[in-house]
Amino acid sequence: MGHGIFGKLTGYVDEAGKGVPDQRSREHNFKIEYSDAIKSAEAVFFFQHPSLLSFQRAMQERKKRNNVETLFGVKEIPCDNEIRGLLDTIAPDVFGDIFMKSLKLADGEGVLEGYRVLDGGVLLALDGVWYHSSKHTHCKRCLHIEKGGETTYYHTGVVGTLVMPGNHAVLPEMPEMVSNGEGEGKQDCELQAGKRWLEKHGEEYQWLKPTLLGDDLYAHQPFCEQVLKAGYSFIFTCKDTSHAWLADTVKNSEVEE
Fold first, then answer.
1. Beta partners for residue 129, in sequence order
2. 101 is a domain residue
3. In terms of Cα–Cα distance, which of 83, 58, 80, 56 is closest to 68?
4. Inter-axis angle of helices 190-201 and 221-229, nearest 10
5. Do 158 and 188 meet the contact criterion of CB atoms below 8 Å apart?
6. Is residue 102 part of a domain?
């Protein structure tokens, strides 16, 4: 990745973080700024290190400078709990534009040419991703499952990702959170989140000529109709157990030689 491209990508994150209202009360420690927490979170994924703080502080002691400072412009490195505490107050949609800007940048650099298939379109995989799970820690928006007399609380989101067979590099798109609302008796689900994703982002991704990929969950007539209405194609898995009529129809339509 060229330094110019990297600088633009980190600039998108920095720009999105500006103007985020500071919701901390006077009792909180204001030593760490929101901008530093946001850029540090980006660095966690970039460096793929389990503890950003220990890694960067050790480097600071050895070389008197650290990568988070030089690459991401972080002034004060927060600890993992400080990153979580600050970012938990920010709505995910604040960072929504970053994904499209990054995709446009990748297209301008010719990156998307390696992802074009099916008459010049792209393959856009939809899938649910768990990013929190606990039998104890939970909030009012947590989903939950009961198994063996135990309750597991979790958070998940539907993530759209540009993929290409044989290419391990994927290009993520803006996710849609699967989250319970206040006062709602029925749990939110991945399929409903997939519908919301299409409603919010279907038009803005049309220029990619996407073919949606998904598992059996998405092979649902109303959702398929919504996909076609958005101008997309789709390839969804159909299990015999959940699509018995379709499986029987295909089986009985086979021509014997």
1. 157
2. no
3. 56
4. 10
5. no
6. no
Question: Does 103 fall in a domain?
Answer: no
Do both 149 and 240 map to the same domain? yes
74 and 185: one domain? Answer: no
Determine how many CB atoms are found less than 10 A away from the CB of residue 235.
Answer: 13
> Does residue 58 form part of some domain?
yes
Closest CA to 78 of 24, 42, 132: 42
Domain of residue 52, residue span? 3-87
User: Could you give the CA distance from residue 71 to residue 74 in angstroms, rounded to a whole number?
Assistant: 8
Of 45, 32, 103, nearest to 71 (Cα)? 45
pLDDT at 151: 92
Residue 202 has φ and ψ, to the nearest 5°, of -55, -45
- Interatomic CA distance for residues 211 and 123, integer angstroms: 5
- The pLDDT score that the predictor gives to residue 125 is 95
- Is residue 123's pLDDT more than 70? yes
pLDDT of residue 182: 59
**pLDDT tens-digit profile of 198-223?**
999 999 899 999 999 999 999 989 99
Instruction: Tell me how many domains the chain contains.
Output: 2
Q: What is the tens place of the pLDDT at every residue in 124-136?
A: 999 999 888 899 9
Quote the pLDDT of residue 257.
57
Strand partners of residue 178: 156
Task: Extract the tokens encoding 53.
Answer: 């703080």
Q: Computed over its alpha carbons, how large is the radius of gyration of the chain?
A: 22
Q: Tell me, what amino acid is at 144? A: H
Question: What is the rounded CA–CA span in Å between residue 186 and residue 99?
Answer: 30
In 3D space, the residue among 88, 92, 90 whose CA is nearest the CA of residue 173 turns out to be 92
